[in-house]
Design goal:
With 348 residues, this protein is α/β, with parallel strands linked by helices. The chain contains 13 helices and 6 strands. Helix content is 47%, strand content 9%. Strands 3-2-1-4-5-6 form a 6-stranded parallel sheet, sandwiched between helices. β5, α10 and β6 form a beta-alpha-beta unit. It is globular.
């Protein structure tokens, strides 16, 4: 698939946004990062009066072949499907935060190793019942990868057609920190052993075992392209998020990037189309040690640092009110002229 993603760079509009921001009733720069967010969203939407409309979280779930053995994951693979039911019943952390912040929530079966049949409320985009074990063969075929990217793209189009202009992605998949670590190593060039962390709670000995296993996997392959790497190491949920990010950027939506797994998908998307990064706001710094290195690689500073390492899109949902605050001050705060307040600095 080809995505037509354009840069948000616009010197004239950027100057006007800066003038509008600087002339609010405050010292220049006094609203800090909110000013940067307001300007970015104005550029994304090509307007001096941006808005956050129908903000939506899409959680993609998928299983990973390597998790069936339980060698790199403390929780069994069945937890993926169990958590999908928890999402659908409203009992997970992401449900709580989306409800609190009036954020729409959709749950997608990207490739869970479970037959959900026609369970109500679940978007069925299943590619297969989990990926293959990359200890033995690539996680997915090129055809499966293209299907995953296309389905992620289609799901975003459907949400955008319902007047959504701000979107975030979450994930669920036992073993997906292993896939994200492998992808991180490929896209950043950081040694694989420096990309691996505790995931959902591995202790030191288990982390060393995970490093040993994933190092062998990484050194067994030599992907020749960004797409081949995603097919080799990725999960269906990660591939689908990659397609979703690319489509959201093509549609000029504001994209709120969550933690380690979603940022791995972003690394893949950026390798496919570099301009995608223009549309991204980084919600938080995950407690998974590899995520901090990803952010440094991308030269991005996240909004929050709460030690979160849950996934599900929770960091992005928590960050939404900060982003809304940025747009709100840009549109509603008075200027010096409107409020008849002097903007002259006293000379001493």
């Amino acid at each position: 698939m080809n995505f037509n993603i354009t840069s948000i760079s616009n010197d004239e509009l950027e100057g006007k946004l800066k003038h509008k921001i600087d002339n609010k009733t405050k010292p220049k720069g006094a609203l800090g990062t909110l000013e940067c967010i307001a300007k970015q969203i104005g550029l994304i939407q090509n307007t001096l009066e941006p808005s956050i409309q129908n903000p939506t979280m899409i959680v993609f779930a998928g299983d990973h072949g390597i998790a069936a053995k339980g060698e790199v994951n403390p929780f069994p693979q069945e937890v993926t499907s169990q958590m999908v039911f928890n999402f659908l019943q409203g009992g997970a952390a992401i449900n709580t935060f989306c409800n609190l912040n009036t954020m729409n929530l959709s749950i997608v079966d990207a490739g869970v190793n479970f037959d959900f049949k026609d369970v109500e409320g679940l978007i069925d985009a299943k590619i297969d019942f989990g990926t293959k074990n990359y200890q033995e063969q690539p996680a997915m075929t090129p055809q499966q990868l293209h299907a995953a990217i296309e389905r992620g793209s289609t799901i975003v189009k459907e949400h955008q057609s319902n007047d959504c202009n701000t979107i975030a992605f979450g994930e669920m998949g036992i073993g997906n920190t292993s896939a994200a670590s492998l992808l991180m190593a490929y896209y950043t060039g950081i040694p694989i052993e420096d990309c691996i962390g505790a995931g959902t709670g591995l202790q030191e000995a288990a982390i060393l075992n995970k490093i040993n296993i994933l190092s062998k996997v990484y050194n067994s392959y030599s992907p020749k392209s960004a797409m081949e790497a995603l097919a080799t190491f990725g999960g269906f949920e990660i591939a689908m998020i990659t397609g979703a990010i690319l489509e959201a950027a093509q549609l000029k939506m504001t994209i709120i990037i969550d933690g380690f797994i979603v940022t791995a998908a972003l690394l893949a998307a950026q390798a496919i189309h570099s301009k995608v990064i223009d549309y991204c706001i980084f919600a938080h710094n995950s407690g998974e040690q590899g995520h901090q290195k990803m952010l440094r690689f991308l030269d991005k500073v996240p909004l929050l640092n709460l030690g979160l390492r849950l996934g599900e899109g929770t960091g992005a949902a928590i960050a939404l009110p900060i982003i809304q605050s940025a747009v709100s001050f840009l549109n509603q705060m008075a200027s010096f002229e409107d409020a008849a307040v002097s903007d002259e600095v006293v000379k001493r």
